[in-house]
Write a structure and sequence with these properties.
Radius of gyration: 13 Å
Helix content: 40-55%
Strand order of the largest sheet: 1-2
Strand content: 5-15%
Order of helices and strands: HEEHHH
Shape: globular
Number of helices: 4
Oligomer: single chain
Distance between the termini: 36 Å
Length: about 90
């Protein structure tokens, strides 16, 4: 039996890691914490992974990272529309 998810098809088509349990996440800069659902945690992990990869591949000014930046923007848009408060605490 498949579980219901709010995650978008474009995300699920990429064979991501899907978390099923809620977990508290801390913003490394502000120290603020927010508890995310499994779906939100899955997308958060994806966004942070993309951010790390973009940085390691030359940053946002490197044209080679533009496809990754586009994916990260889609993830950020999804996150903001699904949990604006968590977005403001963890990703803004």
């Amino acid at each position: 039996m498949a579980t219901k998810t709010k995650l978008p098809k474009w995300f699920l088509d990429g064979d991501p890691v899907i978390y099923t349990e809620s977990e508290e996440v801390q913003n490394p800069f502000s120290g603020e914490c927010y508890t995310l659902t499994g779906d939100e945690l899955s997308m958060y992990d994806y966004i942070i992974g993309l951010q790390w990869t973009i940085d390691r591949r030359g940053g946002v000014m490197n044209p080679a990272t533009f496809p990754l930046q586009k994916q990260m923007r889609k993830g950020l848009d999804w996150f903001r529309s699904n949990n604006a408060k968590a977005y403001m605490v963890l990703l803004d």
